[in-house]
Amino acid sequence: MVSNIAIIGFVFFRMRMPQRATIDEESGKQDVYAFKASDEQWEGIIEAAEAGVLKLPCCGIVPKVRTPRDRVRHFAHPPYTLEQCSSKEADIDRDSIVIAVATKAEELGWEIVTEAKLSHFFCDLACTRPVSGLRIGFEFETGRRPNRELEELDKGLTEQGLSQIHWFFKKGRKGAIPDVFYQHFYKSTDKKRVEAIVVECERILLNIEGIFKSANATRETCLEAGLEFECQTQGGIPSRVTICDPKSGEKYQVTFDTEGCKIHSPTVLCVPKNLEHGEHVARIQKSLVEVIRKNLAAGHAIWWRGHPKLLEDSFKELRDSIEADEKAKQEVIASRNSASSTNSSQSTTSDNVHPSRPSAVAHQTVRQSDSLKTDYISMRLQGARCLLKDHFGEQFEEALLYNPLPELGSLTAYDIVSTDSQGLETLEIRFGYRDTKTKQPIRTLPSYTL
After folding, report:
1. DSSP alpha helices (H): ranges in 266-408?
2. Which of 79, 130, 394, 413 is deepest in the core (most CB within 10 A)?
3. What angle do CA 87, 92, 93 make, to 5 degrees?
4. What is the pLDDT of residues 181-218, one digit of tens each?
5. How do 182-186 and 164-170 pair as beta strands?
6. HEC letters along 173-222
7. What are the domain boundaries of the chain?
8. Could you report the per-residue pLDDT of 141-166, keeping only the tens digit for each?
9. Secondary structure class of 253 (helix, strand, coil)
10. Predicted TM-score of the model (pTM)
11. What's the CA gap between 244 and 262, in Å, rounded?
């Protein structure tokens, strides 16, 4: 009695509920799906089976057409023919999952084939994207096939043209998990396990659609802008778009993954000599973000190295600072020239004023002019001026602020304090008033405070 029950259980486990069959006639072949057929179509399928032209794709045998009351319609192998079929063993649970996922994939616009036969390999569900022809597969392992067999199947399906094969395994599966790339897990005890698997498969398909949408939008933008670009794919899915800037020859990269995309822009220092180039890089990066964001799939995100808004604002602030400082410089020069003209009209020169320097009246005029400037660059310039006065003493003149000095290499004090927020500290280090490592004061000045 026990052995008979065991045999019955084993046969039940081996039961298959195939959903796809083929009507093979002289005029051609046509695939039919049990779960999609209407009542009228189902009658026609029954007639095709009675006429001997309905075949199972797995083994070519004429199937039994089943219409059970408590389960979905399906096809079945006739008695004593299952051993002749090379298709994999399965159970009722697997077939329910295949039907549910296939229905959802078709709703999303994918072409589906259940129990797809590729050479001598079978795939539970093969989905094809109509526009690009991309094909991916889904395998739902509810049985206990050995890992080696599953790994060979995964390799074989890949060799037969499937870009991705997503495997679903029971959590707590006995033995090690097979060495396959795309792995997903579900709880076999979960009453809503079929719904959970369908949701995960839907996410996979939507992610792929999102990548294609973002990549196509990026390519179209490049074409409209006349930019050269190169698109790279991985497994038939866009992975990266490399854009070449014809103006500078630099490259921008947009990489795509299942979570969204990343934008890699050339690194550019925010210094005066890079002003125009930096503004150009910021504009391109900003336009890429805007284009991709418009076509971003729900739940996806954009990431970047260096926020485009910060890059744009940094160079805008630099341009404003340079323009303001240039204006202040012109005013200083004009004030000095005015003071020099006043001094030359006087008949005598004071003994305690060096002839090559502007008079004390000129210095006072310059200080008054500088004090009207409240921006931080002008404040640093005033500090640099005071430092140079204390350092050079009687030899100081305004030109020292704008001329290259040996202590500063090829730079001027004006260059350093106008482009670096720590410019004053840099000057103090260069002139030996602060330690180069600790930046602590090591010398004092008569009136300048470190």
Report:
1. 275-294, 308-344, 360-371, 376-392
2. 413
3. 110
4. 999 998 877 778 889 999 999 999 988 888 888 888 88
5. parallel
6. CCCCCCCCCEEEEECCCCCCHHHHHHHHHHHHHHHHHHHHHHHHHHHHHH
7. 15-85, 88-189, 209-306, 315-343+358-430
8. 887 788 899 999 999 999 999 999 99
9. strand
10. 0.53
11. 17
